[in-house]
Amino acid sequence: MGSYPYGVAVNPSTNTVYVANYGSNSVSVIDGSTNTVTSTVSVGNGPSGVAANPSTNTVYVANGGDDSVSVINGSTNAVTTTIQVGSGPRGVAVNPSTNTVYVANFYANSVSVIDGSTNTVTSTVSVGNTPWAVAVNPLTNTIYAANAGGNSVSVIDGRILPSAPRVNSSLASNGRLHLSWSPPSLGGSISYYCVSAAPTSGSAEVVCVPGYRLSATLKGLTNSTTYSVSVTAVSSFGTGSPSSPLSLTPSAVLPGIPTISSSSVGNGSAQLTWITPAAGDAPISNYEVVTTNGSTSVTTLYDASTNSATLGGLTNGTTYSASVTAVSSLGAGSSSNPVSLTPRTVPTKPRSPKARAGTKKVTLKWSVPQSDGGSAITGYQIYQGTSARHEAAIPVTNGLVTSLKYRVSSLKTGKKYYFVIKAVNVAGSSPASVEVSATAK
Fold first, then answer.
1. Whole-prediction pTM value?
2. What class does CATH assign to 351-439?
3. Using CA atoms, how far apart are residues 219 and 207, in angstroms rounded to an integer?
4. Does domain 166-248 have CATH number 3.30.950.10?
5. pLDDT above 90: percentage of residues in the chain
C-alpha cells in the first residue's frame, strides 16, 4: 500500500478496490478476490478522494494538491486524462445512471459536475463552507455534500435536463421537412425527441419519435411557407433545450426543363421536338408550347405522352420565338431555352416573262414574283425546250441567275425555242413562269 491512504472505493462489477495514497501520489489497485495489490497507478498531487463507475469501469481520483481529477481506465489501470476542477478537491462520487461525476472542492466551497462521457466540467454548484465529502443517490439523482466548516450538508438536485441535440442535416421537399440529429451530450437516457416546425403565424406542427430514433419527417406542411424548425430531447427528468432553430421552406419539386432537340420550319408552320424532363414530385400532365413574334404570343397545350409539336397558322417570313414548358398538378416548371423559327415556302412564279430573238440567241426578261415565300430570292433558273410545255428538267443556266434577264446563246437559226423561268429561295424552286417562245435568227 502507498503512503497515507485517504480514500477508498470499490467497483462491485469487477470486484476491484481502489485506494488513494495521499503521501505517495498514487492509487493502489487491489484484487478483491485475493486481497492483493495488483497495480499502482501514479496520479496527481495529494490524492484524497476516489470513486468508481461500475457501468463504464472508470475510476476518478480527486487530487487536492493540484486541483485536478485523474481519470483511470479500469481495464488498463492507466490514466486517460486529467480534469481541472475547483481549489482543493477532496471528496468524489459518481452517479452511474447518468454517468456524472461530482467533486467537492474544499477551498472553493463548491461542487464540480463532470460529464463522464466527455470528461469535461459542465457546471459548478456553490455549497456550504469547506465541503469535504460528497455522495450520490442514483435512484433519486440527489447529491449530498458534507460541509466541514459549516457543520452542514448541502443537498443538490442532480436531475440534468437534456442539452440541445445537434442537427446534422435537413431537407425541405413537397409539403415535408426532414431532420436528422445527434443525441445531446448531457441528460442521460432520452425517452423521446420532438421536432417542431413553427410558421411565422399560426400553430406549430410537432412530431415526436422514440429516443432511439435520430430523425423525423413532418408532413402536410404548406409549400412556400417558411418554418422555424428545432428538435428537443425529453428524458425522465423533463424537457431539455431545443436545438438552434433552422429556417426551412417546403416546396414542390416541379417538372424539369425540356430540352429542344430539333426544330424545322415549313409553309406557315414549324415543328419542334424535345427531350422529356424529370417529372418532379408529380407526373407531367401536359406541355405548354409558347410562340411569340414580339407582339403576339400564343400558348398551345400538348399531351404529356408526346414530345413533339407542329405549329400552324404562322406567317411566312415572320420570325417567331418558341419555348416548351412541362406542367404537372403542382405547377409549371421552367421553360426551355427559346429557339428562333422563321416559316417560309418557295416563291410564287416569276411574272411577265418576255423572249426576244436575236442571231442564234434569245434574250429573256421577267419581273420578280409576287411573293418571295418568306425568304429572300437567291436567284433564277431558266429551262429550255424545243416544243411547247416540254422544257428540259435541267436548267440551261450555270448556277443561279441573279438579275432579271438572261441571254441563251448557241441556238440554231430558224428554230423555235420555248422557255420557263423559276425563282429560287432556301425553301426551293417556285412553280414555272408562263411559257414564252422565240425563233432564233
1. 0.55
2. mainly beta
3. 9
4. no
5. 91
Domain boundaries, given as residue ranges, for the chain: 5-157, 166-248, 259-341, 351-439
Dihedral, CA atoms, 95, 101, 105, 106, nearest 10 degrees? 40
> How far is 301 from 34, CA to CA, in rounded Å?
91
Give the whole-angstrom CA distance, residue 93 versus residue 428: 100
Burial of residue 334 (number of CB atoms within 10 Å: 0-12, 13-18, 19+):
middle
For residues 239 and 161, the answer to whether their CB atoms sit within 8 Å is yes
**CA atoms of 298 and 259, how far apart (whole Å):** 20
- Alpha-carbon distance 46 to 50, whole Å? 12
Question: Considering only CA atoms, which of 167, 171, 175 is closest in space to residue 225?
Answer: 175
What is the maximum alpha-carbon separation in the chain? Answer: 149
**Local confidence band at 237 (pLDDT 50, 70, 90 cut-offs):** confident
pLDDT value at 186 more than 80: no
Q: What CATH class is the domain 5-157?
A: mainly beta
Query: Distance between CA 370 and CA 346 in Å, rounded?
Result: 12
Give CA angle at 297 (291, 300), nearest 5°.
55
How far apart (Å, rounded) are the C-alpha atoms in residues 245 and 199? 12
- Asked whether this chain's domains 166-248 and 259-341 adopt the same fold, the reply is yes
C-alpha cell recorded at residue 55 = 457501468
Mean local confidence (pLDDT), 155-167:
88
Q: Work out whether the CA dihedral 37, 42, 44, 46 comes out positive or negative.
A: positive
Task: Compute the distance between CA of residue 321 and CA of residue 293 in angstroms, rounded to an integer.
Answer: 6
At the topology level, CATH places domain 259-341 in Immunoglobulin-like (2.60.40)
For the segment 251-310, what is each residue's pLDDT rounded down to a tens digit?
A: 998 999 999 999 999 999 999 999 999 999 999 999 999 999 988 999 999 999 999 999
